[in-house]
Structure formats: structure tokens, C-alpha cells
Design goal:
Layout (H helix, E strand, L loop, with lengths): L2 H17 L10 H13 L22 H11 L7 H11 L18 H6 L16 H11 L11 H4 L6 E2 L7 E6 L6 E9 L6 E9 L2 E8 L5 E7 L4
Antiparallel strand pairs: 1-6, 2-3, 2-6, 3-4, 4-5
Amino acid sequence: MRRRGFILAGALATLSARIGLAQTDRKSDAKTIEKQISDFIAAEPQLFRELPGGKGSLVLPPEHRLVLHAADFLSQVPVEPKPIDSARYIMDSHPVLEWPPDVGELEKPANPIIIAFFAATRTQPYDGDQTAWCAAFLCWTLEHCGFASPRSAGSKSFREFHHFPLVEDPGIGDIVIFKNRTRPAQGHVAFFDGFANDDKDQIVCLGGNQANSLSRKVFRRRSNSLNLVGFRRPSK
């Protein structure tokens, strides 16, 4: 592992232990979870200065007004019986977009809301808000609502997360899982939000990292880049 990777891995491990997210009871109340999120995006920003230059890789300091705004916004996300409804609240209430990429050696700030989603995973956002975050968003939303999650920002983790049963006939709020056709270790995950046609080969997905934002987007069961793996139903 490169030195900067080693330092960042150690820093995030320290923060995880400090905020106790990995050991949190999944039935913790929303205020406890939001305190952990707030601490994650605010604590000791100097630990993240070893982030390699990427796209929007600069993590903002805790006193920055946008970080404070992000923490305040996430603290107000309602805890819904169906996590997709909390996800819909975020999508409808706040534009969660990847911010502009770095320009040469000039680091541009990463969206602190997206960075906060990684607090529900063991993944290090090396490239700021340009780090693939579809699975991190699902993990955050699921845990926010008291559900289990694979605690990984890798979409493949949902393929192997047997705590959620596979279902043939998906309902609103189930998890849609895709595999990349040429890079099978990669893919995409989102909340199922219905079918776009009667043939049910076009799936409406509500999720993160879709056109660089949190959005509703139609995916085909099979496309040039992705194949549908299946659907899993969230359970506590």
C-alpha cells in the first residue's frame, strides 16, 4: 500500500473507532446516527490532507458553512418505514450533486453530503465525491432507517448480502442490483421505483451516482454496460 493510502486507512480506522459507527446498534435513534455522520465529516480534517489528487477531492474543514449545512440537512432526514421514502426526501429537498472536478493541481471541494454517506461504509472516499457512491448512499439510507447493510461502497457487496432475500416480483423500495458486463467486480445499485413499461424490461431506479447525482433514472435489464443481477428486499 502506498504511504498516503496507509496513512488515510489508519486515519479512517481511527475515526470509525471514535464515532463508533461500526459497532452501532442498528436500532439506534436518528439523533445518534446523525451525530456520527456529523462527526465523520467534521472531525480532524487534517487527517484527510493525504488524499491523492482526483476530482473534487478536497474535504472541507469542519467550520465551513457548507459542511455545517450538510450536517444540519442530514439530521433532518425523516426515518421512514421504507428507506426509499427517506431517499426520496433527500432527492426532493436538496440537490445532491458531485461538485466540479479538480483543475490541474488545484483541488476542488467535494460535496460534504456525499462524503457523509461513506460514514456508513468501510470504504475510503479517495477521490472525494467522484468516488463511486451508489452503494454508500444505499448503506447510509438503510442504516438511517434502522436496517442492515453490507457497510461497503462496492455495489458487488449487495449481490452477496444474503441478509436481504432475493425476490422475483420486486416492490417499491427493493434493491436493484446490476453487474458491469466488462468489469464484473463493478456495477450499480439503487432503490427500485417501478417499471417504466409493460414489458418490465425498463426499471426505474432511485439512487446515487446516477448522472453524477441523486436521481430517478431508467435502466434496461440488459444494456451495453450493465446486466440486471436481481432484486433484494430490505429487512431488519
